[in-house]
Design goal:
alpha/beta, single chain, 43% helix, 5-stranded parallel β-sheet, 8 helices, 218 residues, Arc Repressor Mutant, subunit A, CheY-like_superfamily, Rossmann fold
Amino acid sequence: MILLLEDDPAIAQTVSFALQREGFEVAHHSWLKEARAAWAQQAPRCAVLDIGLPDGSGLDWLRELRQQGWQTPILMLSARGEELDRVLGLELGADDYLCKPFSPRELVARVRGLLRRAAPSSHPGLRIEGLQAHWNGQLLDLTRRELALLQALLEAPGRVLSRDQLLDRAWGQASEAGDRTVDTHIKTLRAKLTEAGAAEFIRTHRGLGYSWDPCTSA
């Protein structure tokens, strides 16, 4: 999911359409407080943030996110073209910066680039783009929940993620789903990866959770 924080309706519509046309799921917000609440419910794969907002500054939120330890790729949008503003955004932790007006195709290309650079390199056969996942060029028939679980594991290779962490990522903090729901979806995800010819990369840690381990086959 791509989080878009932009208060200009015309720009928001253009950006959302361009990203959705390429298969990305977009969550658009016009207010900083709305975007903060949405992020708390489900962290995005990438964020596109405007600087000037009705209830605050995108730069201030960028600083907060980086101070909290979030490494999510962030692209800043701004009508300010001065070098000082661009440098400030990059120094605060922005991964890229785009000045208005801009080409929607260029924005999509930059988002793709950020996602490619952020993707773990320990699984060269696996590619996730938008709402689709491919293994060695073969499309994986994954549900939205399965894709979210896979993405969460891939973003933390070798690290054990608890069922609660996976629930928050794939279902959101407000969900009433339980541990058995995660186990069931992981089982189905494993079966689909195996059917596509992938090795058993999802490892179970009894009583702890799951991890993505490309070095294991059990």
